[in-house]
Structures are given as structure tokens and as C-alpha cells.
């Protein structure tokens, strides 16, 4: 199995970042502006991009430290069986977000695309938390011309 890994330092408290990862309003500031269902463990979050998009079950929440989602329902086939984990660690007056999208079956062009897009959205998370100016879909940075 293959994993996508990223780490970004954000000049904000883990509480503020955790809120951006666990609420509809917070998630809409940096990933996509069409989100519903964020909540406690067992919740199904529906992320929509022009009407379609992935659903994730919230499987773990450790306040101000970790958020884990597992695919649930509608999503791209290569994402089936994958998990997403955000780990928060305070270090040197910032909070590092360690992001992992794990258990990919094979390294494909789609996985490479997703890795780059996750980096784009993690920078959007950083901007949303630090400056209130994230770039969620459909205003995100484009990485190809199709």
C-alpha cells in the first residue's frame, strides 16, 4: 500500500486548526464550499465539487490532536479503502499538521494528482487559519489545464 504524506506549519493554536478540520464552516473555508455532515465520530461528511464528490466517515477525533476519516459511499474508485489522518503537534510557536492519505493500492497518475492537490488544499488550510483567506474549491489553485 502507498501513502500520501505532507507536513505544514501553521501559526495558530491546535484548537483553531482542529475546528477547521471538524466543522462544516471550518472545512468550507479551505477544501470545498459545499460541505455537510461534519460532527462527532460516526458522522458522514459529504464533500461536493460541482455536485459530486467523496463522502468520509469520521472514525477518530482526539480533541486538538487528531482527526481520522475513512471512505464511505461516493468517491473516486482509487480512494476506496483509503483513510485520511490529520495529526496536530505544537512545536516552536506553531502547530504542525501532519497529513496522511493512506492505503492507496498503487502509485498512479491519479495518486500523484491527488498528492499535489492535497498540498494545495493544505496551503489553503494554512491561509484560512492564519489570515481567514483560504482558497476552497471552486477558487482553489489549478494544477492542470483540463
Please characterize this protein's 3D structure:
25% of the residues lie in helices and 35% in strands. With 146 residues, the protein is α+β, with helices and mostly antiparallel strands. The longest helix has 23 residues.
Which secondary structure elements does this structure contain, and how are they paired or packed?
Layout: E1 2-10, H1 14-22, H2 24-28, E2 34-36, E3 44-48, E4 55-62, E5 66-71, E6 83-91, E7 94-104, H3 109-131
Antiparallel strand pairs: 1-7, 2-3, 3-4, 4-5, 5-6, 6-7
Task: Name the features.
globular; 3 helices; 25% helix; 7-stranded antiparallel beta sheet; alpha+beta; 146 residues
What's the quick description here?
This protein is of the alpha+beta class and 146 residues long. The chain contains three helices and seven strands. The chain has a seven-stranded antiparallel sheet.
Amino acid at each position: 500500500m502507498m501513502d500520501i504524506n505532507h507536513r505544514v506549519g501553521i501559526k495558530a493554536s491546535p484548537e483553531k486548526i482542529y475546528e477547521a478540520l471538524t466543522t462544516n464552516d471550518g472545512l468550507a473555508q479551505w477544501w470545498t464550499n459545499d460541505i455537510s455532515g461534519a460532527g462527532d465520530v460516526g458522522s458522514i461528511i459529504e464533500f461536493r465539487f460541482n455536485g459530486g464528490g467523496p463522502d468520509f466517515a469520521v472514525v477518530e477525533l482526539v480533541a486538538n490532536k487528531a482527526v481520522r476519516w475513512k471512505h464511505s459511499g461516493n468517491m473516486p474508485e482509487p480512494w476506496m479503502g483509503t483513510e485520511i489522518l490529520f495529526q496536530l503537534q505544537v512545536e516552536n510557536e506553531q502547530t504542525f499538521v501532519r497529513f496522511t492519505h493512506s492505503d492507496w493500492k498503487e502509485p498512479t497518475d491519479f495518486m500523484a494528482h491527488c498528492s499535489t492537490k492535497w498540498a494545495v488544499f493544505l496551503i489553503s488550510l494554512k491561509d484560512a487559519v492564519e489570515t481567514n483567506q483560504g482558497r476552497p474549491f471552486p477558487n482553489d489553485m489549478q494544477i492542470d489545464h483540463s
